[in-house]
Amino acid sequence: SSEPAAPPAAPGGEHERAADGSLPANFDIPNFLGYNDTELDKGWNERFQIIMESIKRVDPSLQRSGKIDDTLALIGLAQDFLYSAKAYGKIVISEVFLPDAEKTIKPAEMGGVAGGSKYLVQDILFKFALDVHGLYGGNDAAAATVAGHELQGLQAYFNCQGPGLSLPLIA
To answer: Do residues 94 and 82 lie in contact, with contact meaning Cβ atoms separated by under 8 Å?
Structure first.
């Protein structure tokens, strides 16, 4: 009787995989991927740009391992970013009708009025698309439509992957 082979140990041999092949919850992906504390102290955008530049430099004729490592780094960053964005976003949304002085996360003065109220927390910019300045005749739906178009435009530019083109991490 031939038993299936046990799943391989986690990279680096520091952690054993579970019977289903998954990594343990305490597996340190940033450390495994070679990030040091200095790199982890960088903001979301700087880390995103580093990973994207690394992905662009991978030679397609070389082994897949470099591309896999970069992809795992991007997935980890995106998951962390989304977790943080959701947590802080819930606060911004739940406090939208409070006076600014009572808000946990205060609106940021960043210039421009078309994007509505802006909030900056942990290097994440939130644009709360309401027509707070009457630019769209008080129509919040129009302000939200414009914000949606901004995201679509960023996604289109991102998909172009033009040389020298760097775009922010967005959700």
So the answer is: no
Helix or strand run (H / E) with residue 12: none
pLDDT score at 69: 81
How big, in percent rounded to 5, are the helix, strand and coil portions of the chain? 45, 5, 45
Amino acid at residue number 148: G
CA atoms within 13 A on the CB side of 36: 1
How many CB atoms are closer than 10 A to CB 116? Answer: 22
What are all long-range contacts of 75-79, with beta carbons under 8 Å and residues at least 24 apart? 76/29, 76/30, 76/33, 77/44, 77/47, 77/48, 77/51, 77/169, 78/169
- The tokens for 158 are 């991102």
Answering whether pTM is above 0.70, one says: no
